[in-house]
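The data layer described in this paper is built around a simple, fixed record for each protein. We quote a single record here, exactly as it is kept in our systems:
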Amino acid sequence: MDNPIQNYAWGSRSVLATMQGRPVPSEHPEAELWMGAHSSAPSVIEVDGHATSLVDVLPDLPFLLKILAIAAPLSIQVHPSTQQAREGFARDNEQGMPLESPSRNYKDDRAKPETVVALTDMWLLAGQRTGAQLRELAHELRLDWLSRAANEPSALRAALSLSEERAAESVRACVSAAARLRGTRLAHLPRVDEDAALHPAATPLERAVHVIELLDHHYPGDPGMLVALCMNLVHLHPGQAVHTPPQQLHAYISGTAVEVMGCSDNVLRAGLTTKHMDVPELLSVLAPQQAPIEILDPVSSPDGSADYPLWDTSLSMVAFRVHRGHALRRRIPGTSVVLVAQGHVTARICETGASDHEARAGHSLLYRGEAGFVEFAGEGLVFVVSGLLNPKGGTGTSEDVVQ
């Protein structure tokens, strides 16, 4: 597969280039490597000696696979459920908004659930801290606005509903609080401009000060800081995963990861961005109660592979290591993307006369057709993401329940 790279501003100039063996630093920030049939940036494959868009071959591939290379926090965002997406897409169409309009909220009528697997230590914001946690934080930071928000039914909604003037005042109060603590109790915290990582065992107060300083460094004055402070800052060790269902607020902060998601462009943003924000629409999509954050440790099989649960039973994701000198034979359940995340691997369909196909880190192969066995040799970390093709597109409605 020949896969496109998205040059978003938050991307790294070294991660993907190093992974793929290209010169470092890259000319532009490289944020996401896309593997799939997304119409805006589809992969290209070779068919009968000709380069062909995957859209022309597998237009209904029900997932988009990515590698994320995060050098700065992404926007805080939420994705609609299938029902919300259908209603919102129809509403934008009725209002005559062009699909390419930057002020359009809904680009399609599908949900966008996603599961991310950390390749390195990774930090992300997800869901909302409890009222008790927020009250303790407000006391430690001496933040009146946070104390008031903590006593509301939803602190996230309270933070998003502040006036522009009150939000700006509250952001300044956050920055001052972090500076005060940095000069006294938290002088030991790594500084964000030194590219030092926050320790996974950091306390809630240390995590909060780190978030304030990080966002002030990358997005000075952005009211998204207030939303972020109400959210859980979650750490993932390499190999751990988190699933983000529709209607849950989230933002990836740092690290490198593999992500599999529904093939949709529906994103409603809550801050840390220069892109379109529609706060009333976001609040209408946001689940009243944010689901507890569950870190997913992979289910290990006797053969050493790791299975990651996805949002739909028609989809599967498995990761395994190939060791030099020991060929590994694995069953591929059907149409799949085979991603090499580390190392250099060859793959061969277990049939007489089948050819070897090579893939280095940061590259992928496409397996088409019925289930079969593939032999892997070399050395590396491989992800196989598989999905039953749906003639109507999408991946079912298992995520449609409002939380």
Remarks:
- The radius of gyration is 22 Å.
- The CA atoms of residues 37 and 57 lie 9 Å apart.
